[in-house]
Design goal:
Layout lengths: L8 H13 L3 E7 L4 E7 L2 H14 L3 E8 L4 H14 L1
Length: 88
């Protein structure tokens, strides 16, 4: 079992919800006014591209802060996320 400390239970629940929905992408947004994070899901690459374009055009109060591919198990996804954060 890997050590997934630093990954919040809320984030893990978003991953599980996306896997359950058979979503392809997990999108994480940050509300710059209320200082809360929330998520949404995309089922295909075209929807992801639309979300990114909308964020770039209208991202003043709500910003897209993370895009994570939902393929594999929860542990595999978390391991990729940790690797991505380590590089940043």
């Amino acid at each position: 079992m890997r050590d997934f400390s630093g990954i919040s239970e809320e984030f893990r629940s978003w991953i599980r919800a996306g896997i359950t929905r058979n979503a392809k992408w997990l999108l994480v947004f940050s509300d710059m006014v209320d200082f809360v994070d929330f998520c949404d899901f995309c089922e295909d690459d075209a929807a992801l591209e639309l979300e990114i374009a909308a964020d770039e055009a209208h991202g003043d109060e709500v910003r897209l802060v993370g895009v994570y591919k939902l393929c594999g198990t929860e542990e595999e996804i978390i391991a990729r996320v940790r690797g991505k954060w380590a590089v940043a």
